[in-house]
Design goal:
globular
Length: 344
Amino acid sequence: MNQPVISETSTRAQSELAVLDGLRGVAAFAVVLMHASTHAPHAYLAVDLFFVLSGFVLEHAYGSRLGAGWSPGAFLLKRVRRLYPLYVLGLAISVLAVGAALVLHRGAGWTPASLAASALTGAVMAPLWSGGDTPLYPLNFPAWTLLAELIANAVFALVYRRLSPRLLMVWCAISAALLAWLVLGYGGINAGATWPTLGIGMARVAFAFPLGVLLKRLTRGALPSSLALPILAAACGLLYAPLAGGGVYDLVAALLVWPLLIAAGARCRIQGPLRAVCVELGAASYGVYVTAAPVYILVHAVLKTRGLSGDTLPLPLALAFCAGLFGAAFAARRILGWTPAGLG
């Protein structure tokens, strides 16, 4: 799987976009819970939410500078510098976990050569080509979303001066139709992490990121702050609903629900404890998202030596795992002064 709003914006914007931070935070929590358990059946939809948020926030934070002639290369370098440190931390954790498993003769499916190849390509954020139905990033499979994000960022910067609202509307309509066709043919939108499904993954970002840019340009006015909690609750409902899902469910979420929640959330101005919670969740979300799979590989390997069976954790342990990751992110933010960037 997809980065915090607050690290890209001014203090005033932090208050304005706090509900979007909250959306990012609850989505990241669902992704982490999905890695560790079966209790967030639609957490894969968080990726589409992240992509729309990214387009919205990058337009908010950098649109005026790009329009004034800021170099696309400088913009993309800034994005890489924001995304890379925590990405490489996750990579290092996975290398440690798999390396230890190999030493203990428990590294099923891994060899020293495959570990080295995955680590070397991963170090430069490049996907590993190994043929067949294999992940692009075997050591951290959600990292494909960072590849998609950076491609979208590069195109965004290169063509920014030509991105009129009308052109964005036409593009979003065409890309939505393409995405719907691909998703209905595949049977769902949970795709992009492997080579055979990469096309669907690119279609997801090709629709969602420009839509975020368009939403930012069209969003006007304010909504009552009392809508903030219903917006966050609706996002949770979509991610955790005990429904079968599939193509239609996924498309309704990606094409309709996420854009509506983001457009509404961007117009809510919240203060007090709720704003503080949303801002903290948003600040932690990218670090949690990009390290969750590697940390789970490590934790699960340790627990297996203690007799744990199966690939998932009981719900209490899974919730403890989520709380631990968010707690570590909060501590790093407070103690080390980190303000990790998100996909936005």
